[in-house]
Amino acid sequence: QVQLVESGGGLVQAGGSLRLSCAASGRTFSSYSMGWFRQAPGKERELVAAINWSYGSTYYADSVKGRFTISRDNTKNTVYLQMNSLKPEDTAVYYCAAKSDGRTRGSRYEYDYWGQGTQVTVSS
Question: How far apart are CA 104 and CA 114, in angstroms?
Answer without folding.
Answer: 16
